[in-house]
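Exercise 7 asks you to align residues with tokens for two separate proteins.
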Amino acid sequence: MRHSKLIFTALIKLYPTALGAILPETQPDAQAVCPVHPVGVWPLATSKKTCPIDLTDFIDDEAFSDQDYQWYRSDKCHRVGSEEFCAFTQPSFNAGHGIALVTTSGILEKMASLPVFTDPRAQPLAWIQSASPAYQDEQIPGKGIGLVAKRPLRNNEGLLSRAPIVMVDDTAFKRLGRARLTELLTQAIGDLPETYQGEYLNLTTHLHVETHQERVYEIFMRNDFVTPVEGIREFHSVFPHVSRLNHACRPNSKYTFDASTLTQSVFAATEIAPGVELTVTYFDSIQTRSQRQLMSKHGWGFECTCSHCSATEEAIEQSDERVEQIIILQRHLDDYSATSAASPEKAELLVKSFKDEGLVTRIVEAYYRAAIEYNSVGSAAEAVQFAKLCVEEGEVLESSIRPFMNNMRELIRDPTTHWTWKFRLNAE
């Protein structure tokens, strides 16, 4: 396969080269602002529309050469309207694990200007293993390989953090169509170092596949996460190990994407005992059981058999009633008009309903609404109490929900100067 090197200067220059020329002989050991996924969409209580980039200084510049920043384009591209989509790779990214993008040259130029690609100090240390690993790979009946807790895990404990194997531009994801997307994905994965190719191809498809191309496509469709890069574009990304996390409608783990380092990090959402499978939710699970079943079957190709979906008929009926109540309560609390039916009592009920329903990965949403609601009627002590709970639970998700966390910190500092102070009373 031919490749063209992309050099980002004042002008993009393309010239043929060989991919093998830059590979090292040995690989190193190894709807608001800031959209939240899978945490829900909350009313953004701030006018600030920035997501600051935080960089850490832990890699020696001298360990990297100019070649580490070179991008390679496959020889096959596809056009959709005025945009041409290609498969691009940077094999030396992330200590030689590499990364692939399916996007346009214009979007790639913006991505390649991010510090994570231009400053070696900003690159994630994804290959460093903890002295006491939180999990191990295990065969899960009916699910393939999953991740299982290896030792007792604490609430909010970091479990793993990984950079993506491949990222697909949202426009390409939605408009290329299966055949053309499959071709570009196959080229993208094939141009990565062999070790990373193997990590990708060992992920589950949930379906029987007969060809290599089908496997590449189905793996992507069944394992991708939505990963927005603010100011550039939304992507769909597949990560090593992170994509091995199986779905549960009431999971015990939560995750966040940090666009400044292109890393997906996973945290325990509750205390987890050794031998328990680590799970996340693949979609908005504040839905009734029948709705969740439709999502899992049509969106991911499997019938959800998690403990919540497999409960007794009585338990499922009670859960569905709580879910419907939660949806109504959120609608009331998110209504800031003078005719809103919101009240602190409804905020308290929302928090209780989240806990009763086992929504531990999303409890910050209930705390957030309760803090806003109490402050809106001038109850500063209660507002600060819930704001502190929100920050305590949400800090590990900071990279995805920073505006909301900053909003809560402002309320904690002085509830009386916060924009929500007595706004319900003033609206009457």
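Second protein for Exercise 7:
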Amino acid sequence: VYEKLADEFDKEFQRKYGNDLDTSLIFAGLFSAVSSSFIIQIQPELQPDSNAATQALLMVLVQNMTGAATTGLTPEQLGAPTIIVVAQSLLYFSLFSTLLAGLLAVLGKQWLLHYDSVGERGTLEGRGLERQRRFDGLLRWKFDLVMQTFPLLLQLSLLLFAAALSIYLWTIHPVIAAI
């Protein structure tokens, strides 16, 4: 009777968490690809515009030669606009959250495989004690709580991605961003 009940519980436990982990891994993989493509798209805008810096330096030279008051170089002229840096930072944090969820999902899959590897060797009592020891380990390490963080991390990633996309759209086309 114990063996039948334990097998039913273990199969349900594996099915429940296995499906959740598979879904999280697939979503994390697809979403990290999308985030990476946006990061790559915006990356060149983080580089300082060499033409703008040259123009600013020429303006300072001309002002010095004509005796006009020099305005100096502002950080915006030498680097990326702050709004682009903010958008890119949000995209990187979104990617980090997604990859962290993927890493934890892989660890969760490994925990489940280890839990399920009690095997058929030994006495029924020995297998039962080993199974209980492993189950107690999952409880001690708050396995259920860890499994519940995946959706939160992925939702955080989506929220950060949406914020970054919105900020970036405001720099490109305010009318589209307002929609």
